[in-house]
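Summary for the funding panel

The consortium committed to producing paired sequence-structure records for every protein in the target list. Below we show the first two records in order, beginning with the earlier of the two.
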Amino acid sequence: MSETPVLEIEGLSVAYGGARAVDDVSLAVGGGRIVALLGANGAGKSSLLRAVIGLAPAVMRRLVLGGIDLAALPSERRADAGLGYVPEGRRVFAGLTVRENIEVVIDGAAGLRQARVADMLALFPDLAEKADERAWRLSGGQQQMLAVARALVRRPRALLLDEPSLGLAPRIASEVFRRLRAIADEGVAVLLAEQNAARALSIADEAVVLAHGKVALAGVASQVAADDATLMTLLAG
């Protein structure tokens, strides 16, 4: 896949009440690549993702998606430009069916909506079996897949995910991560914030480790994983 950056973040900082949660972070994600965003609790991972999608106050030098400057755009315009986001905690619409959860975010005629939903059900066979079930009846893993499908159905160029394995059994988490690797292999740029470093590094191409809001370690995922002592120290906070 192309290593030309699809998503470019330069000099991004986030502050809450004068305290910096993210401090001058720069990174880039190429099409078909997964960048694992790692760090201890409170390192700034979620704040960075929320700032990129436009849900947290931030200052930055550049935020570019496929050549489009997103920095001055509100969150809905960033999504329209091709930025997808799966927040921590899934946040599916519990009272809607699987099909309705996906369809509700699609603009366009009925035929287009049906075709896009069919694409997502083909990508996630577990959801296809539950297409007419209410989301509250799904397992945690199925809800996570639904949250990813809802973000993907708008065909984003870059996908941000915040702790997708949180609360999932190891087998189900492995399936979610396998799907994420397949999504990236289709050309989507993926920025994955994840507490389970070993699992994230196993599917990632590059890794960025945050400590106290700053980039403390970055490089090829396999090389970051090999620097076990440094990685463990940073993840311990």
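The next record, for a separate protein in the list, is shown here:
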Amino acid sequence: MKPRIKSLNTVEAFERDITLQLGFLKNIKPQKPISKKAQKNTVFCGSGDSLASAMLAEAFSDYRARALDPLDLVKNKRLLKDKKAYFVSISGNTICTVSAAKAAKNSMAITRNSSSQLAKTCHGVLKLDYDDSNILTCGSIGFVASMISCISLVKKIRIKTAKNLFESAKHQSKFTLRNKVYVLGNQYTYPLAMYAAAKMYETLGIDAHYERIEQFSHMGLFSARNGDTVIIFEGNNRYVRKLQKHLKLLGISAYNPSIKSKSISDQALFYAFVSQFAALYNAKRKRLSDCHFVTSKKIRNASSDMIY
């Protein structure tokens, strides 16, 4: 691990960690996928960004594997019966995830911290190996590391165009987040819509929501107002253009960052980058030195007390 860089504030550290992802992705070795038959008896579990990684494994397995909240497993241990469980946590010390792991008879920790409580509780460890700024900031490289580990356990993936995806995401993420923000996704991008909302909460402290693209027209749209922002994580197609047209007529800004690649792993990585850059760009636009979760000490203390 690299030494602490004292000169960086937490927004600068966030930006540096985002940039470090390119070097990490050049050398990453994805996991070997488990069989489709075994996936039917596999559970992924995590909280926060780690739940988004678990949900991506579920989506990329075509829902053979399941993604579950750790509190659900704590309350209903039958969900783990005859299952192999992968518990995702960067720190490896989140109380609820560790408690859920204790109930599993066949478990694997996906964590950066191989000496953590989670690692000690599980029967094996898949260690996430990456360098970051070693400064408390919003999750970026850690999320991408866990995301790729989880996805590659259920589907063979190849990371070849990371730099192009990174630059495209950087270019397409320079939109201004105004008022209430909605991030919409589908099967493979809905977990990333959740991740994007999390980066907006943590970095900016804004009112952000994540929803499935189709469900937004049934539900979330009725809470939207003139001046709000909608971001659509989906390829540029007729459905998206029709939705954008309606939103424009309602006075709602609608953005559709997209790439031409049909590779679902490319799509996932691209929207992970968009999520990070959108939060970073708007933090810079507001001239923030530190992320919202760092300056909001009482909220952070409440969060930490519940998590750890």
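Regarding this second record: The beta strands are 42-46, 66-68, 84-88, 107-111, 125-127, 181-185, 208-212, 229-233, 253-255. Confidence is low (pLDDT under 50) at residues 1-5.
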